[in-house]
Amino acid sequence: MSELLNSLTTELRRGTLTLAVLSQLSEPQYGYSLVQLLEESGISIDQSTLYPLLRRLEKQELLTSIWDTTESRPRKYYVLSDYGKEVFKALKAEWEKTSHELQSLLKGVEQDGTT
Amino acid sequence: MERLDIYIQEVTRRLPEKSRMEIEMELKSTILDMMPDNYTESDVDAALTQLGSPAKLANQYHERPNYLIGPNFYDSYITILKMSATIAVIIGLIVAVIDHVITRPDDITLLEAGISFISNFVGTIIMALMNVFAWTTVTFAMLDRLVDDASMKKKKWVPEDLKHIKPIEPKKQISKGEIFFSLFWTAVWATLYFKASDILGIYEKSKDDGKLEFVEPLFNQEVLLSFWPIVVAFIAFEIGMALYKWMVGRWTKKIAVLNLIYHIVFVIFGLFFINQDHVFNVEFIQYMGDLFDVEKENLQSVWNKVVYGAVLITIITAVLDSFEGFRKARK
Questions:
Q1: What does DSSP say about strands A29-30 and B201-205: parallel, antiparallel, or unpaired?
Q2: Which residues of chain B have pLDDT under 70?
Q3: Cβ of B51 and A47 within 8 Å?
Q4: Residues of A in contact with B27 (CB under 8 A)
Q5: Measured between alpha carbons, how far is B305 from A110 in angstroms, rounded to an integer?
Q6: Chain B contacts of A53, Cβ < 8 Å?
Q7: Residue A30 pairs with which residues in a beta bridge?
Q8: Rounded Cα–Cα distance for residues B247 and B260 (Å)
Q9: Alpha-carbon gap, residue B167 to B145, rounded angstroms
């Protein structure tokens, strides 16, 4: 059962990952600082998924990137583009709606189960 | 080379060349970020453990589909593969039997003959299956990529679309059997064409041991084979047509028209073909003349009659089949 549960959990989280990443990128972040930000909020993310995801989001023009070469080692900073901001807003609204709906659904089950 | 660099190299060598440099730089700076400034070997190992297998990481970076034939076409692919493989095995069997009958030396035992037959058959089948597999796979892989791009631009499906699709009536329906036989027929005549010099012709019972011997081929092989590009075009068209019929699943006016065009072109080519010089093997004609006691001076005209008889049969068949196509489409 735990194996199935694992794969279901991964599947459930996969979609929220994009939202989580977009939410943290109104300020420019580089790869590892983003990981830390996410982890501070308790979201642990597979790093082998995160870095390719950033590239993909950039290709989809949701993010823009810039190499900062002023510090001791060059770092690639990602930040939301205008289009990305728009998409993030819409996606956030969608998430809030979904989670609200799901919450009332799950509550219903709980009540049925207890009574 | 440091373990860190080897890791990065293991990732980037799996990626398209144009994105390699960028990803290499990004990965390196990321991994260095993950570790304290004066990192030790165990820090590197810890960081690399977090990133996981380089192959898996590289896979995540891939933007293109990493499959050959996607779910859109997989079912059709398997069906066609099974069908073609069956045809290949049957044709292989026929060819092996004929080959065996013709070429078997008479001084071997039944067991030896059996072994030689089976090994011959297995060899032919393996070659045929490999060809079938390769061509079917390549075709479908190309199809998958072409259609995928095209359907991206397509507009959304609405129930209104169903208006244009007529319900399938049993009489119009093109069964899988029909497709199978048209593919089978194509394979048969293609085999005959390319193997004509060994198969089509006169067989004679040998006086010594009573076995069949191939004496004279019907066609002049060189003239016959000089038409191969046209023949290959015909084969490709017939296969394409069979697949198209299978996809549509029923007789339509378009299929009937295609069928008509095919028959017209086939007949024209047939007429052109038999009017070439030296298509038929002179020895063959003479042999037949002797067999049926035709006088020498009449031989050519009698032979012409035979040929035109064959042409007539072909034309009648073509007309009937074309007509049948339209009849099925209209009903």
A1: unpaired
A2: 1, 64-65, 102-107, 148-155, 166, 168, 205-213, 331
A3: yes
A4: 51
A5: 91
A6: 60
A7: A77
A8: 19
A9: 30
